[in-house]
Amino acid sequence: MEPDAKTLVLIVGPTGVGKSAAGLALARRVGGEIVNADSMQVYRGFDIGTDKPPAEDRRAVVHHLIDIADPSSQFTAADFAALAFEAATDILGRGGVPIVLGGTGLYVKALLDGLFPGPGRDDGVRRELEREARERGLETLWRRLETADPAYAKKITPRDKVRIVRALEVQAVTGTPLSAHFARTRSRMGDFRVVKVGLDLERKELYRNIEVRVDRMFERGLVDEVKTLLASGVAESAPPFKALGYKHVLRYLKGESDFEETVARMKIDTRHFAKRQMTWFHKMAGIRWFSPAESDTILEFVERNMKKQGPDL
In this predicted model, what pLDDT tens digit does every residue of 52-97 receive, in sequence order? Predict the structure, then answer.
């Protein structure tokens, strides 16, 4: 079929729901290429714990933004948004359909809505704000934020120290409330029409999938992968070692937990992570939700909406 010249398909959902299979099926059907939106699959060498698509899937369908970052670097949402836009534009230029696939909500938001680049960290201002929080209590900073930027204060909680400090820091450095900066932020995707698909499962089924997924990672050699990464010189402080699975195995290798405790903790933490993912995505506008089993219905929905006129569905 011939899609609209500026159509992008987005497939989101929690870990373990079946996004990869849905993306592959759709890509084969519509002539698509997959743009990875998983914040850990960008790192080279971190394969099993991130559940990267196998080589045969990547040969069958072109995948973008996998294995592009050195583990020692901090790959950001802004980096993703810029590279994903380039990839989507390139795919469209070759007559394909870009299919953004992943579960990192901040990456998806950065691509679709844009990110306020903001001023860099001002260590002096931040130290003073954090000192005030320690000595006078976080509530003091919260009240100041409520007065200075009530619109942003409504979006966060009085206990969110990181965001409170950052908002006051930005206002101190720029003289402008953070909410005003956000209001002026624009995405380069403004002239794209985005067909948004969300995948969800009944909670018990999703949790069963997660447990199977975790067991499979250990069976495939997750512990040995971590040992190999450490032996190759990747520091324990490297950003991807903070990811689910890797941080658990690091604790196991240090003797801080036994194997059974490590596996059980990873399953629990992954379930909690999936719940947070769903909370994030259910707040996004315009997503049509399906069960992964509704493969034909998903394909029909996407094909039908790829031909509709007008921006962003």
Answer: 999 999 999 999 999 999 999 999 888 999 999 999 999 999 999 9
Strands 193-199 and 63-64, sheet pairing: unpaired
C-alpha span between 291 and 188 (Å, rounded): 31
7 and 192 Cβ atoms separated by less than 8 Å: yes
Per residue in 184-199, pLDDT (tens digit) is: 777 778 789 999 999 9
Nearest 10 degrees: CA dihedral of 132, 135, 138, 140? -70
The three-state secondary structure class of 129 is: helix
* CATH number for the segment(s) 123-184: 1.10.20.140
| Residues 238, 69: Cα–Cα separation, whole Å | 12
Show me where the domains of the chain are located: 7-115+186-306, 123-184
Q: Quickly count: other Cβ atoms within 10 Å of residue 61's Cβ.
A: 18
Contact 108, 282 (CB under 8 A): no
| Topology match between the domains 7-115+186-306 and 123-184 | no
| β-bridge mates for residue 288, sequence order | 197
33: Cα separation from own chain's centroid: 18
- The first and second tokens of residue 33, run together, are 């290429």
Helix (H, G, I), strand (E, B) or coil at 68: coil
CATH class entry, domain 7-115+186-306: alpha beta
CB 264 within 8 A of CB 211: no
